Amino acid sequence: MLASTLWGMATVMGASESDKLTHVRVAAYNVEFGKNASPEEIGRMFKPYKLDIIGFNEVPGGEWTARVGKVLGMKHVYVGKVSSANHKDKYKSILSRTPLELTAEHELSVERRRSWNPASCVKATTKIDGILVAFYSLHICRSTDSHNTGHAYRLANEVLLNEKTDRVIVLGDFNNNMGDTAMNMLQDSGFRLTWEDLEIDVSKKFTYNALKPEQPNAGVIDHIFYNTGSKAITKSGGIIELKKPLSDHKPVWAEIAFPKA
């Protein structure tokens, strides 16, 4: 009887947590226009993570993202039309297990000599386990300015400020390290880095350059944020370390738990 009672309590507690939280598994990956790996290779690499949604940066146009999705059983795709710095095949895309709605692309270009332009982010909303999530995949340049001239400033003050969805995830290649002006700007506007929840010291790690690890690197410049107003928390995640790099960047991933209420 005691064992039966304890099992019943555990079942109720488990159901209670499931009823209250939605776990969203996401990843960001700058694939360097796919020159080092096929979309099928990248799909197979991601398969163990059982992701709900992926944001790609510097991704080829056309069917490239859909080919990754075919390996993963993820059918829903949105590919932007703004190629970073007008280089060939450096688009931003979203790959999702659930249908995408309200897809859009926001150009983030600025009039600044030290910036490459154009920069942009692609956005979509999707319902996962009954809740609506807004998802942004971006590629912006490094900013050393302390004023309102960078891509991150436009992202925070012109795009994210107007987002009405209660739960928001922003990820991609920021070309900035944790603690930089651009990153602080996003955190001050109501977003939290998954590294903080995971208590990962990113000062001792790097996501670029994965192909030349013996050379001085740029540190961790690929990040995942969620909006603090959602009351979410990161349950797991990190930098995906590969024996054979598939790009000059390392992929990053996170499992974010959003309260349903």
* Residue windows where pLDDT falls under 50 for at least 5 positions: none
Spatial shape: globular
- Cα-atom Rg, whole angstroms? 19 Å
Biggest sheet, open or closed, and with what strands and sense? Answer: 6 strands, mixed
Mean pLDDT: 92
* Count of separate DSSP helical elements: 6
- Strand order, main sheet: write it out: 3-4-2-1-12-11
Describe the fold and architecture.
This protein is an alpha+beta fold. It contains six helices and twelve strands. It has helices at 2-20, 39-46, 64-72, 151-159, 181-188, 194-198; strands at 21-30, 53-59, 76-79, 91-96, 101-107, 120-128, 131-139, 168-173, 191-193, 222-227, 233-239, 252-259. The strands form two sheets. The chain has a six-stranded mixed beta sheet. Strands 5-6-7-8-10-9 form a six-stranded mixed beta sheet. Strand 7 (131-139), helix 4 and strand 8 form a beta-alpha-beta unit. The model has no long low-confidence stretch (mean pLDDT 92).
Key phrases:
261 residues; alpha+beta; 6-stranded mixed sheet; 12 strands; 22% helix
Question: Care to give the gist of this entry?
Answer:
The protein has 261 residues and is of the alpha+beta class. Helices cover 22% and strands 31% of the residues. Helix 4 packs parallel to helix 5.
